[in-house]
Design a protein that fits this description.
The chain contains seven helices and 23 strands. It is of the alpha/beta class and 326 residues long. The protein has two domains: 188 residues, 3-Layer(bba) Sandwich (FAD/NAD(P)-binding domain); 123 residues, 3-Layer(bba) Sandwich (FAD/NAD(P)-binding domain).
């Protein structure tokens, strides 16, 4: 990478989508450059490798019958990408020049990269309550999670009292999913009615093992190595109470990592996710592709992100071939 050189493809991001795109691009002899970012706090740690870096056991990704930790999986992804020639740089992209080709990317150290194409795979981060103990137990595998589908079926949560924080459709989906495994699911909502659709809300209200705690918010998460209870605060009276649980699932939404794209011309939806065209990974700008959670507010799974990364690499390779790059 030098100021004079022009890259064939730059991949921004290093989760399952970014590494899969890198593997496919590298095997296609495109010599991809992968900008993996730098660690930061927001309020939970945001690490190169994405949300899986905060996940202990991954049991639903094919090919790992005994399970694998999130960091170990991302390390394997990276090694596979590097094996085929992917170059890895630990810098953030802070600005984009997509109005003319070759495209330019401004990096956090003040340098720039020029490239013929870009694959955006910066993912999304879960929104957290911001409590010290919540974040501590989330990052240590202590029973706090932001994804019930990812973690809810783990043995540590089966036949146990669990809590879900939130009142939207995501919280309803999480609670309904956890009800299959938990002894009781406690839904904690700071208001006296859900924001979720009526159908989703009614499914929760009708479930025999789901209990709703109205006008309550989590004031603290209790437990040393694993969660033992949450301290609730009544949003009307201020009264505090203790609710014993062995798992806490935060379901108050995600924020896509697209701040660096705000003035780039890439189309974003109202929530900040990259808008994809009707097929594949193409954005509204030719030569700019996107994959993974940065463009997927629905599934948010490692395997769907990896599949999107594959699609982005194939779309990018075909587009470059049309431009005469082989």
């Amino acid at each position: 990478m030098s100021a004079e050189s022009i890259e064939n493809v730059v991949i921004i991001g290093s989760g399952p989508a970014g590494w899969t795109a890198a593997i496919y691009c590298a095997r296609a002899d495109l010599s991809p450059l992968c900008l993996i970012g730098v660690p930061k706090q927001n309020p939970a740690p945001v690490l190169p490798g994405g949300q899986l870096m905060l996940t202990t056991d991954v049991e639903n990704y094919p090919g790992f019958p005994e399970g694998v930790t999130g960091p170990e999986m991302m390390d394997l992804f990276q090694k596979q990408a590097e094996r085929f020639g992917t170059r890895v740089v630990g810098k953030d992209v802070v600005g984009c020049g997509f109005s003319e080709r070759p495209f330019t990317l401004e990096l956090s150290d003040g340098s720039t990269v020029r490239t013929r194409s870009v694959i955006i795979a910066t993912g999304a981060t879960a929104n957290w309550l911001g409590l010290d103990n919540e974040l501590r137990l989330a990052t240590s595998g202590g029973g706090v999670s932001a994804c019930a589908v990812c973690d809810g079926a783990l043995p540590m949560f089966r036949d146990q009292p669990l809590a879900v924080v939130g009142g939207g459709d995501t919280a309803m989906e999480e609670a309904s999913y956890l009800a299959k495994f938990a002894s009781t699911v406690h839904v904690i909502h700071r208001r006296d009615e859900f924001r979720a659709s009526k159908t989703m809300a009614q499914r929760v209200l009708d479930a025999p093992n789901i209990e709703v705690h109205w006008n309550k918010q989590v004031a603290d998460v209790l437990g040393e190595s694993t969660i033992e209870a949450v301290e609730l605060e009544d949003t009307v009276t201020g009264e505090r109470s203790r609710l014993p649980v062995t798992g806490l699932f935060i379901a108050i939404g995600h924020s896509p990592a697209t701040d660096f794209l705000r003035d780039s011309g890439v189309a974003l939806d109202d929530s900040g996710y990259v808008v994809l065209e009707s097929r594949g990974s193409t954005t509204n700008l030719e030569g700019i592709f996107a994959a993974g959670d940065v463009a997927d507010a629905e599934y948010r799974q490692a395997i769907t992100a990896a599949g999107m990364g594959c699609a982005a690499a194939i779309d990018c390779e075909r587009w470059l071939a049309e431009q005469g790059v082989h």
